[in-house]
Amino acid sequence: MNPSSSAHRVSRALRPWRRACALLTAPLLACAPEDVPEAPSTPLATQEAALPSGGWSVLMANGGAPIRSIVRRSDGLLLGGASTGHGITVWVSRDNGASWSVHGTVASNPNVDFGDVNMRAIPGTRTVFCAFREFSGGQWRVTVTRSDNNGDSWVYDSTVAGPTTRFVGAPFLFQRANGDLQVYYDSELLAAQRGYPGHQWIAMQGRRGTTGAWTEYGTVAVSWDKRAGALNRDGMPTVVQLGGDRLMVVVEGVEAFATGGAHANVINAVQSWDGGRTWDESLRRTVYQSRIDPGSGRRYNAYVPSAIRVGNGPVGVAFCTDENKAGAPDAASAPVDQRFCHVGYVSTTTSFEAWSGASPVWTATSRNYTPGLFERAANDVIAVIDGLGSHRVLKR
Q: For the chain, how big is the Rg over CA atoms in Å?
């Protein structure tokens, strides 16, 4: 069975934050196209041109590989995971990402749907954590497993969130400068608990050091657009360290206010000065939003971002986009394998609040998903792209 195709059949069926309008409750029915307020005419510092030529070359043309998340083991090998639907496969690379082979499994259960696999290796140890979302019996969980032998075998570590009938998923593991392990994840539950049913926020929980309960920080609401009537459906967080306890989280979202009667996918970022305990709304930025289609009046989509700090310098973000598509944009709720998708890249420029225009990473095919970035050495970056049936690895 091909791990990629099975994983994405599950992902499309189960990931409710892709269906923002369909899931909104009665007070939020303004999501219907004819009722949604148009976006305020605020000038934006993002470029709305089609992707120009880029600077990536193919390292691996096709084959199996991790989806989105890659770590380096203590012995130098690269490690990552991918959902197979009812299991999670571990992949290893012995040639710095040029090829990959199966290296066991994290979990397997015919009664559970697994997805959103993310790993974090703890420096100076042989410990690797693997977080993922589970769906079974109508309920969602964010689960963490642990390996103490570089990913050769795995044991259950903890449940971060759930079980709950409201969606929680897409975890991202991050280790703060003081050594605390944190988990950032999508949470319809947190938004509903704080009075916004039908919305989805990014939640963060952490533990002191790398063991113990996920209660060191409480449950932090990382960021949301607080303007009246704004729609918040944030997901797929990645976190980068800008220096010390200054962090940036980059997320997929939807337009807070509709363009042309629809909420397109956009990419946002916000920063923290205190290791994730609080988030500075004055530094909230739109990382990238695609151009507007003149025929339909709707905005093309930018989604599933992956962010890293490159060479201890700028932050780079790879993402999916349909802005090179002829005709109207895809619906933000469309199944992944029915969406037109090229992969683009943007980076910070003069500051961590200023972003470049987009350049292409991959435009040779139009069915792609979940790019993942990894810096093999200073300024040596690879991108792993899920081709919905196989994978490809590119180098920059």
A: 19
> Which amino acid, one-letter code, is at 48?
E
The series of mean pLDDT values per 10 residues for the chain, 396 residues long, is 34 36 28 30 35 81 96 98 97 97 97 98 98 98 98 98 98 98 98 96 98 98 91 97 97 97 97 98 96 97 98 96 96 94 97 96 95 96 95 93
Separation of alpha carbons 197 and 199, rounded Å = 5
Burial class from Cβ neighbours inside 10 Å (0-12, 13-18, 19+) for residue 358 reads buried
Residues near 228 by Cβ (< 8 Å), separated by ≥ 6? none
Hey, what are 59's tokens?
Answer: 């390292």
Whole-angstrom distance, CA of residue 173 vs CA of residue 179: 12
Tokens of residue 392, six digits: 């490809």
Supply the pTM of this predicted model. 0.89
Q: Does residue 302 contact residue 320 with C-beta atoms inside 8 Å?
A: yes
Q: What token pair was written down for 170?
A: 């897409």
**Peptide bond just before 163 cis, omega within 30 deg:** yes
Which strands sit side by side in the sheet containing 78-83, from one edge to the other? 70-72, 78-83, 87-93, 101-108
Q: Which of 224, 226, 196, 256 is nearest to 38 (CA)?
A: 256
Q: Helix H segments across the chain?
A: 3-14, 20-23, 188-193
